[in-house]
């Protein structure tokens, strides 16, 4: 029998203990005259500190980027049901995020990991500027709690160099609140609705002299839209800051993330469209699930210098995974790292100059065992391996304002990434030992211009080089040569982009056009879609990703019914043109998995204490399910509406209704090579979209 990675009772008790500690500390801080002789807490969440800047300061820093970026203030998602990263990022152009089931997603920026059938590749996730990905570059989304966010920064492509990231997709930084930036000292929330969903959240924060503390906890239970789709999660985040001396501050972050997600598996196209709530029989008989326990501790210590600021980040993440799928994957590993980085502004020959310099060293080891799956339990062992990864990076970026309103940006990253794999063998089903070692190295430069046309309007253009190193899921595959590592090269790309962002009168706009010419793109396909075997990976010699990332928001009217009300129309458009280029197998076909156009239209009416926002999500033409381009899934249009009403000062009731017409859709695909070759039923590789659903909740902020 498999050991569960965390007993349910223990999970609840650990989370409850953390929340109880927060609740007990808060009154103590509030009642002690010796501790709490302090300034009033900024309930609007606009304050900041040396280690955790305010939200306006974060936005200003992001908007100085020479390239395409986006900013999400978490205030926008407070009064709606935000359960996954799709709920957080669906209004960001250029970010493609689709739900498979529960919290499992496809997250792609500019086609990063475009055909990856599971988890994440080619995109770096950070929390408070500190990496969440494993040391081999892979990652998932389970430890990002939408109810524990204050802001989200999206740096597309090479524009993520300010974090040291130079992958094709870039980086997304999830910023959690501190006691200085929280919406309120105490927040209580309960919401739920369709599929027996219920979720509770509590956040408590206090400032005591030089110290500040925030604790946030969320418990979610849902039966899910499909059979065998149950979700049980418990998330706990906390941070403690302390001013050590004038201009010196340290902040510790800690987190505990527990997930127990049943997996309903993929279906044929016909099954997904006619009976979307069903589960794949193999998923049920194999009791396929994903049980994860993750603990995270991190620190940022900041020094305010005569010129600029020095931040020193360090982190350690422990992750335990029990994952019965085609086999039982049983893993336990650590990721750890350190990253000093300095940013400052000074004059060069009388001209303003802004410089950022950084180093990152991070590594990890993962004990990766596999067993035959016997109804979700461990059968005979098939693998006994150790995966080790290490990375050393140096990066820098400089903006030289050679005119008062025009800056020349230069930058580069030097990296070395090692991947080592050891299979001890000695098993009846795997007698031979195996070993492999590979190091990838490179230099990624960047060059661009930023023109500040006026205080609220910018124009930019840049060219960057990216490199994506294969992770262990890519490298360790069955292959005809019988080698331990598939001989994969790192994916490289040159990306050119140009765009504008800002406001012109009543119109706010964000527009970017880009083109990326790739060599050796890491392309995936599912070799046996019916059994859920992880996708195969190969290098495509030449590919091209190009597209449009556009968002526009127009203030249609003000003072319609009463003073202070407004009617706003917002349109988000992401155009994707991802193709093979003269490929020996696929010619100039489209790379499967992501539709060519994704549009979202929102008409929002707001007035003090009330908001109403109907929305239309429209995919005119669905994506191909195979690289041979023989099968395309249908497009769709989904109608939803969100509303919020203040019941009393600090108390808000909200409703979030989705897919009101109960449209049958395909949300995501496990891409195959040639769907037509798999017979009349086609591949078993489709994930149905969620049907009609309604969620509601109440939030109190005091």
TrEMBL record:
Sorted UniProt keywords: Cell outer membrane, Membrane, Receptor, Signal, TonB box, Transmembrane, Transmembrane beta strand, Transport
Motif residue range(s): TonB C-terminal box: 685-702
Stretch forming the signal peptide: 1-30
Main localization, broad class: membrane
Matches recorded under Gene3D superfamilies: TonB-dependent receptor, beta-barrel domain, TonB-dependent receptor, plug domain
Boundaries of every TonB-dependent receptor plug domain copy: 63-171
Family matches, as InterPro entries: Beta-barrel_TonB, Beta-barrel_TonB_sf, Plug_dom, Plug_dom_sf, TonB-dep_rcpt-like, TonB_rcpt_CS
Pfam families named in the record: Plug, TonB_dep_Rec_b-barrel
Database matches in PROSITE patterns: TONB_DEPENDENT_REC_2, TONB_DEPENDENT_REC_3
CDD domains in the cross-refs: ligand_gated_channel
Domain TonB-dependent receptor-like beta-barrel intervals: 215-660
Domain of life: Bacteria
Subcellular location: Cell outer membrane
Bilayer topology term: Multi-pass membrane protein
UniProt family annotation: Belongs to the TonB-dependent receptor family.
UniProt protein name: Fe(3+) dicitrate transport protein FecA
Gene from which this protein is expressed: fecA
